[in-house]
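Task card 7
Instruction: Convert sequence to structure tokens.
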Amino acid sequence: MHSDPWHVLHVVSNHEKLVAQHLGVRSLEHYLPLYTERVKWTDRIVVAERPLFPGYLFVRFLPQSRRSVISTPGVLRVLGDDESNMVSCAELDQICIGLASGLLLRPHPRVTVGTQVRVRNGVFAGVEGLVTELRQQSKVILTLSAVTQCFSLEVELGDIEVVNKAVAKPGLLRSAAYS
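Output:
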């Protein structure tokens, strides 16, 4: 079962960790990618663990366990049933390795404009995304298949290659010159 793709669970917002605990009690294999960030409270700064994909987590189960999954408190629905609505082991392994190695992975809103690129080096080699900022490093937005959620990754400009040229739109001519 370790090579089977992962189902995507849509869960109640801000209940991802609780749903993961319930799945663990039910002995269901699950994965909730978390990142840490410093959060300023009124009286102090704390380090908080937050889900990389707010409102979603991943689970693998046999068809006969489906009822146990969807009846888990906090689960809203299982996204799709076909392979196109599932996440491959390779995709989640890349995210897991990236988080464990200290890469700066953060949630990012879905982006539809920019230059489509492919990461050439590192853990995310071969993954395609959109360039959203050009600085000394380039911020690339990567979309996880089967989920309408994205995350950003900062990589050197030399570590990406252009897949398609951005379509110039009115008002974007200056930024198109940088791509």
